[in-house]
Amino acid sequence: MTGDNEPMTALRAPFTTPALRRAVFCVAGVVTAVAVLAVPAIVPASGVLILWGTGAFSSRPAPVVAPVFLVLFPLTIVLLVVLAVPLGRALGAAQRALADRLLGEQVAAADRPGWRAVGYALLKVPLAVPEGYGAFCYVFGLVNLSYPVWWPLFRNHPPGTVLGPVRALTPFGTIATRTFAGTFLIAAAGLAMLLVAPWLMRAGTTLDLAAMRRLLGPRRLAERVRELQASRARAIDDAAAMMRRLERDLHDGAQVRLATLAMNLGMATEKLGADGPPPDLAQARELVALAHRGAKDALAELRDLVRGIHPPVLDNGLGDALATLGTSSAIPVAVTVELPDRPAPAIETIAYFCAAELLANAAKHSRATRIELAVVRSGAGLLLSVEDDGVGGADPHGAGLSGLAGRIGVVDGRMRVRSPAGGPTRVEIELPTHV
Known about the structure:
10% strand, two-stranded antiparallel sheet, Heat Shock Protein 90, alpha+beta, 7 strands, 12 helices
């Protein structure tokens, strides 16, 4: 089934929104490269203007030509050198914005030496070659594909009329035709160009993004420090939110029930008191029954609170805990756990709650009929995967999944989401085995 879909996917690729956005990014890259090449031309152009303004090109040049040229020409070079860094940084900021908006790739800004921004600006010239080639195939592929469409509209002259050839641009030169049949050859060349264009543009943008991250992005150590700072902030926020939730649940639930229990037991004691009128056994029994029910409800709420902090079923291992979690799901869950040894308790807890939240999301949104839950060893860590056969369309940037990604980031976890429209949805979470 996958093999049958691959040709159709290749045919649809040039007509998708990502392909159009890549084409716009590539065209912008070519324009930027032309601008970078034009900057050095400012120096000789300014020299020519200076000479012309001082009358050097007249039949009788003014005597001040040489002094003026010797002063203003070096000043122009100095000005160009001084402006190189701010211009390079401005170009880098514009390219980062385009990458974010058009390609969905975020390159964090970094306070790095200015020569890196200048280096990226100069590197845009060779990078524009594959980008420009891909954009050329994309734009002129569409143009060439349209030749059979417009030919009958504009080349409908009477028989015997001699017309000049119509030419079409291709990567290997021009194709000329004088007949309607020849337009199909041009259209075939345009289709070939369109099929190749997405791969050429992808190669060009991949190289550009790599250079952008290397020269404009933060260093690996700085990026790591930033990630740790963000993880620490998320851990503090999660801990504070958990404390508030526990305080609220204890205050509004178990504490109220225990207070009611104490009050009912006190009233029952009064009914059964040794002094005063004879005891009212019926009311005493009713109060004791109410106190009994209140005690059971309070215990149930306390068990729920404890389960939310650390599920007791995890004491037997992650496999038993996930199996128990799967049996309580509204959708049938196939659980597979293959771990040679137990991870750290904190990792087991995180994996358990990730699985619980993913199963809850699938039951709520996916309209699936089955779910596969697996935990296996992956390198030095473990891989938790949840896949359903539902309708797909899960948003990795939504509140639920983005919050989950933030929590696993505290322990350097990573999450991947693949959920095309129509399904299936597969979420993979990589976690270390030890904190």
